[in-house]
Write a structure and sequence with these properties.
Chain B: Keywords: Oxidoreductase. The complex is a heterodimer of chains A (about 260) and B (about 325). Chain A has about 260 residues and is mainly alpha-helical. Chain A has eleven helices and no strands. Chain B is mainly α and about 325 residues long. Chain B is globular. The structure holds fe (ii) ion (3 copies).
């Protein structure tokens, strides 16, 4: 381990695992920022729970990436010794928590995709990915239920909560399209039958989102211009700050074990 | 634990009807027989009041205690440590919830108790008014603060009030897990680089004396232990618990290769003649500092209360939305 960044040989499978791991780590990290500051103690518990599930998913996926890369890297090398441009997560995952409405909507949009995605990935011919998918699917089903229930409560609660939820939908919407993108590297895995094309989940995601937003009396935005770049390391301004905090201790003492 | 701030006396009225004295005698007989008092049983008003104060102070301590460790969740230096720390802070929140529920069995509401905390009227453990400055503080807190909490709480598992005793049994299991985890962080640092070991020593230097204060004022100046002892709420005096803690901790520090920041620390053998038996005598505790912290002048008192108030205030619209939605749903179902 060093203070400088590691170099990763991103074969399609390593890149695939890092992308999903980074989604889970960065989003889990964001949720952990709420700990001790949530609107109610029950929500401190719930957000920590979801954050812990995502951290667990990230660790499994990093371990898998390490195994596939076979360069002696560990989960912590991937998490703490890559710079922002080496991170491969969705922009959606790194967006700041904002108010509780934004945190909940961000979780809902992600979980509505991840739940479908992991459930289908349980059939992957790669036994490790299938096992990670099985565990993640169970967890994500709860994340989806929890966040969807809050979307409905906030949307159909008070005037203020409705306004905040609507603002969150509007702010986050342009970041939802990236979930369905696959580049050439990922397409190679799709063609080989190892992983599933995320684009294939768009209609089902759309239906879940439409149903819940309708129940929440929130308007679903029209399809529009979508932001992307996280998957190839072109991030928002926010990720650098997140990583500066997250990586500060291990980068301060080279070679240390924690 | 975190029962240290109990230092106001609840005097019973001077003249009481014979019936009440009889009830009180029956109550005391049950306590003496080690029976558990349950929520619906008759109990003296002062017993109820003492318990509400102690349990709510304990609950507040768990909740405020989330903040100093929460300060390092985003900076935990490995994914394993990050998950463990997040889970630990979440446990503390769970402890707060069980304890508020235990207090509610005595006829108060969580809202009232929360209001007392937020307004600054309620006390919580002095220890959480110290800052967490380095990663080693996560080790020192787990090892020493959770360790002191366990010393205090194990006897509370036999507290005469059933709901509190049962909450403590559950809480103690998790606290001892936290303590081992904290000690393991310290051990890793002490076996690490020279910088890491120095970080561990520096954290110990800062946390040692505040941890000794966690057991509350010395017996000589502690006002109301007597009644709590008769009621079997308190089983050991502050000084007894503090001594147990010091005796347990000195060899642990030695094993880590760390020095406790007390030049007066020395082993005093007891009269058994066995030189290995005795106690660790420790130096003078700075009770003036303790008093200042209880009076609100610790390094973090203001920040801790401000953080809890901010979470509460900024969460108001969320809680209102949940209530409004529940109301709408009920109305729709009734229609
Ligand atoms: Fe405790
Ligand atoms: Fe606790
Ligand atoms: Fe604890």
């Amino acid at each position: 381990m060093t203070t400088t960044s590691i170099r990763v040989v991103e074969t399609p499978l390593v890149l695939y695992a890092l992308r999903r791991a980074d989604d889970a780590l960065v989003l889990g990290h964001r949720l952990s920022e709420w700990c001790g500051h949530a609107p109610a103690l029950e929500e401190d518990m719930a957000l920590a729970n979801i954050g812990l599930d995502l951290l667990g998913q990230a660790r499994s996926l990093y371990s898998y990436a390490a195994e596939m890369e076979a360069a002696g890297h560990t989960e912590d090398d991937f998490a703490f010794h890559r710079d922002a441009p080496q991170y491969r997560n969705l922009l959606l995952a790194e967006l700041p928590n904002g108010d509780f409405a934004r945190t909940i909507l961000r979780q809902f949009f992600y979980a509505a995709f991840a739940d479908l995605y992991w459930r289908a990935m349980m059939a992957s011919p790669d036994p490790t990915l299938a096992a990670i998918a099985a565990k993640s699917e169970k967890e994500t089903a709860y994340h989806l239920r929890h966040s969807a229930e809050w979307v409905i409560r906030l949307g159909d609660g008070t005037e203020e909560s409705h306004r905040r939820a609507a603002d969150a939908v509007a702010y986050l919407w342009p970041y939802t399209g990236e979930m369905f993108e696959a580049d050439a590297a990922e397409r190679a895995l799709v063609d080989a039958g190892t992983v599933l094309d995320p684009a294939g989940f768009r209609d089902a995601w759309d239906k879940t989102v439409s149903d819940i937003l309708a129940e929440a009396t929130l308007e679903k935005p029209a399809a529009g211009w979508m932001q992307q770049g996280g998957r190839s390391g072109r991030h928002s301004e926010h990720l650098g700050h997140l990583l500066a905090v997250m990586q500060s201790v291990p980068r301060a003492i080279p070679g240390a074990t924690w | 634990m975190y029962t240290q701030a109990l230092n106001a006396r609840d005097d019973a009225p001077a003249i009481r009807p014979a019936e009440e004295l009889e009830q009180e005698a029956r109550f005391q007989a049950r306590v003496d027989a080690e029976e558990r008092i349950e929520a619906n049983d008759w109990m003296p008003a002062a017993y109820r009041k003492t318990l509400v104060r102690q349990i709510s102070q304990h609950a507040h301590s768990e909740i405020v205690g989330m903040l100093p460790e929460g300060n390092w969740i985003t900076r935990a230096p490995s994914l394993r440590r990050k998950a463990a720390l997040l889970a630990k802070v979440q446990d503390e929140c769970g402890h707060g919830l069980y304890l508020y529920a235990a207090a509610e069995t005595l006829g108060v509401t969580r809202e009232e108790l929360t209001e007392q905390l937020l307004s600054g009227r309620a006390k919580y453990s002095s220890i959480f008014n110290y800052p967490t400055l380095t990663w080693a503080d996560m080790g020192a807190i787990g090892w020493l603060v959770d360790g002191a909490a366990i010393m205090n709480q194990i006897p509370l598992c036999r507290c005469s009030y059933g709901p509190y005793a049962r909450a403590m049994i559950r809480v103690c299991k998790e606290e001892s897990f936290h303590q081992r985890q904290g000690y393991e962080i310290m051990l890793t640092l002490c076996r690490g680089t020279p910088e890491q070991k120095a970080m561990a020593q520096e954290a110990l230097n800062r946390w040692w004396w505040p941890c000794l204060m966690m057991f509350g004022p010395p017996d000589a100046s502690s006002q109301h232990s007597d009644q709590s002892t008769r009621w079997k709420i308190k089983r050991f005096s502050n000084d007894e618990l503090r001594q147990k803690f010091v005796d347990a901790t000195v060899p642990q520090a030695e094993y880590l290769g760390l020095t406790l920041p007390d030049p007066d620390l020395r082993f005093v053998p007891d009269e058994s003649g066995d030189a290995s038996k005795g106690h660790w005598a420790y130096g003078e505790i700075d009770w003036a500092e303790f008093k200042q912290i209880l009076a609100g002048n610790g390094p973090c008192n203001r920040d801790r209360l401000a953080a809890r108030n901010k979470a509460h205030d900024e969460g108001a619209w969320v809680r209102e939305a949940a209530l409004a939605y529940a109301g709408k749903r009920r109305a729709r179902q009734a229609a």
